[in-house]
Amino acid sequence: MGSRKEASIQQFLQLLESKMAEEGRRMCMRPVQLLALATMAVHLVVASSYQIENSPVITQAECSDGGRFTFPKPMLTADFYNHSCPEATTQISNYIKKLVKNDSSLPAAFIRLQFHDCFVRGCDASVLLHSIPGNESELEGIPNKNSLRGLHLVDQLKAELEDICPGVVSCADLIALMARDSLQAIGGPSYRVLLGRRDGMISLKDEANSLPSPFQNYSALLHSFSSLGFDSKEMAVLSGAHSIGFSHCRFIAGRLYNFSRQVGAFDPTLDPEYAHRMRKRCPPDRSDVFFAMDPSGKHPGRTFDSSYFRNLLRNRGAFTSDSTLTSTPEGRAHVLEMASPQNTVFFEAFGKAMEKMGELGVMTGAEGEVRKRCTIRNGF
Q: CB burial class (10 A; 0-12, 13-18, 19+) of residue 244?
């Protein structure tokens, strides 16, 4: 049954290839025709969805004058899997709800995973690739090594999807949906996730070291974000992801003990009460202990809300990169705007920023691949 289905699709694609080549030649001499665009869209969706070996994906057409016409790059869409794997988004959502019900710390892990993926090479799931002989992957980079959580859960969900729709749902889309759905599961904002990303085939350890650091000051942090097209407000808004999650005490030890090489001193920009409380949580000889990024509320580190920004206004930001958001008039204004206890302003801004981040450097159409296993490229 499967071989007949693939043969039928192959014939359909070959017919489309011929038709698109013809339309491409015409488009060199007259306006773009709806038929050509429609066939291009169907062709690329079908070819990428069914992952047929050697499928004839055409992206250019030869013009009658010897030149070439390049078809537009396919865009992400909300209904990308409606025909190729209609159960996908529901399957992912249900899986995530069960996970988060058992462990409400997972949303922070999944959001961080998407950050670390999209900020390096774009949203292509390159962060999931394991190292191979001769190439150390992003997972070996300093910001990622032994610090990304939930990777095995991505693998489990991908395996389930492969049973339902083999070779259809990309790992890059999976990361984006797991982040959004897990955040929703703890009462966070719902936002649109467009689909159709393809998985990257390159992952380099050194490139991961370009990720924003918890030790950055305002100008360095803004440079990291602006290099990817984010403005200062979006930087502050996305930093609000630190309203959930936990971190190792070693990342703030320098702010709590012997600050600027002064024995017994803590960072003077910290609220003294907060600093003393954090010292109790993070003794100088226990850098392996975890602490909640946002200690407020009944469920510290597990409640996504605007309290993160209110804590910043009280000089209670854990990382230097948190505290620095109020160190300039521009940054402080953004923090004040997001600090409303109603959460509405923050939720709306965060959703828009996540939508933008989710489209960074995406590959679509015939670019990249759809991995069968998220940790390794197809064919390896």
A: buried
